[in-house]
Every structure is written in C-alpha cells, then in structure tokens.
Amino acid sequence: MAKVFVTGGAGYIGSHVVKALGEKGYEVLTYDNLVTGHPEAVLYGGLVIGDLLDTRRLHEALSEFQPAAVMHFAAHIVVPESVAQPLKYYVNNVQGSLSLLSAMAECGVSKLIFSSTAAVYGVPEHVPVQEDAPLQPINPYGHSKAVVEQVLRDMSAAKGMDYVSLRYFNVAGAARDGKIGEGKEDATHLVTLATRAAAGRRPSLSVFGTDYPTPDGTCIRDYIHVEDLAEAHVLSLEYLLAGGQSEIFNCGYGKGYSVLEVIEAAKKVADVDFTVKYEGRRLGDPPLLVADSQKIRGRLGWTPVSDDLERIVESAWRWEQKRATSKW
Ligand SMILES: NC(=O)c1ccc[n+]([C@@H]2O[C@H](COP(=O)([O-])OP(=O)(O)OC[C@H]3O[C@@H](n4cnc5c(N)ncnc54)[C@H](O)[C@@H]3O)[C@@H](O)[C@H]2O)c1
Q1: N or C: which end of the chain has fewer CB within 10 A?
Q2: How confident is the model over 181-194, as pLDDT tens digits?
C-alpha cells in the first residue's frame, strides 16, 4: 500500500485520518511538533516530532520516508486568537505550508491533500455554499488558508503538483470505537464544549447571540462527524493516486443545526441539564453556514455514515467520559 506523510497527525482531525489510513493498510508517518497534538493519539505508523518551520528536519523526514502523497493538517486553528495574533497565524499556516511545499518539491513528492476550511468563504451570499462561491475570509485564520489555496492553484497550474483541498465545515465527534477524540484541553468547538459541560468539566456553556435571523435566533452550522471527514481524505488520496487532477471539495452534510439544537442534543444524550449562559453576538459569526456537498458526493462517491446530530454528540460524549480517566 502507498506511503502517506501526515503533518499534524497527532491532532484531533489528523489522528482520526491516520487511524482510517492505518486501518486500510496504508503506511503512515506523522510529522508533528505536538504544540496541540498528543503522541498517544497516533495509533498507526511512526511519529517524527518536528516543526514545519524546521526545514532541515522536515526535509530529512520526507526524503527518508519517500511518500506517494502528503496530507497537511498542521496549523493553528483558533479564529479569535488569529485576530489578536495575526502574525502567529501567517507564520505557522502560510510559511509552514510554504516550507512543506518546498520540501515536497525537493523530494519529488507531488500529491497533496490540504486541510482548508469554510472560513475561506467568510459570510457567504448564498447558502448552501458551493465551492465556486467567492472567497472573502473575514479573519486572519481564514485568510491564511485562502492564501495557501492560492499557492496550490499556482503550483498546480505550473504542473508541479496535484492537490485536493478539502474545505471542512464544523468538524465534531470522536472515533466510534472510543479509541481517540478531541484531546485539546482548551478546545473551542461547540460539541466538545457542550459534552464537557455535561461531564462537569466546565461550569457552564455560553451561547453567543440569540437574535440572529434563524428560527431560534442562534447560529446554524453544518456539523460533520470526524470519521466521515477521515473517509473523505481516504477517497481524496485514492483519487490523486489514480491520477486525478487538482480539485476543491466542501466537506459537510448540507444540513444545519442551531447552537440550541446542539445543546439540546448534548443534554439528551448525556441526560444532564448543565447551565447555559446567553451572551451577546461575537464579531464575525455568520448566522448560517451550510455546505453544498454535492460535488464530493458525485466526484468521489463520498457517502457519509454518521450524518446525524445525536450520533455525533453520542460519540463525543463517550469520548469525554473515557477521557476523564485517560492520560490525555
Ligand atoms: N477542527 C475543525 O473544525 C476544523 C475546521 C476547518 C478546518 N480545520 C483544519 O484542520 C486541520 C486540523 O485541525 P484540528 O482541529 O485537528 O487541530 P489540532 O490543533 O488538533 O491539530 C493540529 C496539529 O498540528 C500540529 N502542528 C501545529 N503547528 C505545527 C507546526 N508548525 N509543525 C508541526 N506540527 C504542527 C499540532 O501539534 C496538532 O497536532 C487544521 O489545518 C485546521 O485549520 C479544522
């Protein structure tokens, strides 16, 4: 089976993709500086502890492993932090990606799967949003990903590489077998925060904005189970290895749930009535963000199996309970 080099494979999404690749028999090597990742999360293949910006170490790891393709998850991901510290985001996400692309070019590796984000669309004019919608990011995090996508377009046009850019919507949940899940203590995503509030690890959960033009006044997002997203990566890899051309795909279910619906699901699944605080709107939250995912379903035959809010929340809840007794 082909070899795959995975940056950020010790992180939340990367570790689930490493697991999916390992289960299918791919040979995997994770490259991660563990700034937010956990070595225990890497269930398959080796782990090189290194930074994207350590060009020598990165080059050594790539040239020794000689992968058929690279999957690039390593990045900083917290939107408000990117607003407060833009340079940190441009250095890690843009410069880090340039460092990776240079090392790939030097080592003759020309296939890449890139972790992009719905944040590149900013506040979309039409929802469900399609891949050809204008890119109008509204924060440095989104800009950093849009810049890398532009670099990839240019490199692909120059015939140097073939890539798939996956624009994730709201990734949530944990491995259905309970082995791994979100390990960041300071995670900022709603499903994780709600299950941690239910587990008593947080005193309450805050809802930001209750006066949006949505049926219950709270923001609506497209939550995608992390294992369905992992499968999208495996399919993208198979597509590129079969000679597929560069492509961009949205990754979401095409169905939105409000913040209150997620909270209700968490309370029901955990059977705990945790405290919810209602606060003002945050800057830059679009009211409605839902993917049009027809393209990835049609082109790659992606068929999600956990397309259900309660199932997503259940997996996250199971993981939170296990995490209470695990090292990470
Ligand atoms: N979580 C989401 O909902 C979401 C949504 C859209 C896009 N994404 C993208 O998915 C990717 C993974 O996100 P995640 O939620 O798993 O985050 P994460 O923080 O759990 O994982 C990122 C991993 O990259 C590593 N890393 C960061 N900078 C590095 C560097 N300079 N060198 C080496 N390793 C480095 C971290 O240690 C960590 O293991 C990111 O690129 C993110 O932008 C995530």
Answers
A1: N
A2: 999 989 999 999 99
CATH of 190-221+254-323, one of 2.40.128.30, 3.40.50.300, 3.90.1640.10, 3.90.25.10: 3.90.25.10
Does ligand 1 lie within 6 Å of residue 236's CB atom? no
Distance from the alpha carbon of residue 7 to the mean position of ligand 1, in angstroms: 9
Instruction: Return all residues near 206 (Cβ < 8 A) that are at least 6 apart.
Output: 276, 277, 278, 279
Alpha-carbon gap, residue 292 to 284, rounded angstroms: 21
Helices (H), 167-289: 190-198, 226-241, 259-270
Residue of 30, 31, 72, 115 with the most ligand 1 atoms within 8 Å of its CB, for mutation:
115
Q: Is this structure's pTM higher than 0.85?
A: yes
Q: Is the peptide bond before 128 cis (omega within 30 degrees of 0)?
A: yes
Mean per-residue pLDDT over the chain, rounded: 96
* Distance from the first to the final alpha carbon of the chain: 31
For the annotated catalytic residues, the residue numbers are 141
Q: Assign domain 3-172+224-251 to a CATH class.
A: alpha beta
CA of 272 to the centre of ligand 1 (A): 30
Residues 48 and 29 sit within 8 Å (Cβ to Cβ): yes
Q: What single letter denotes the amino acid at residue 226?
A: V
**Can you tell me which atom of ligand 1 is nearest the CA of 172?**
3
Give mean pLDDT, residues 140-164.
Answer: 96
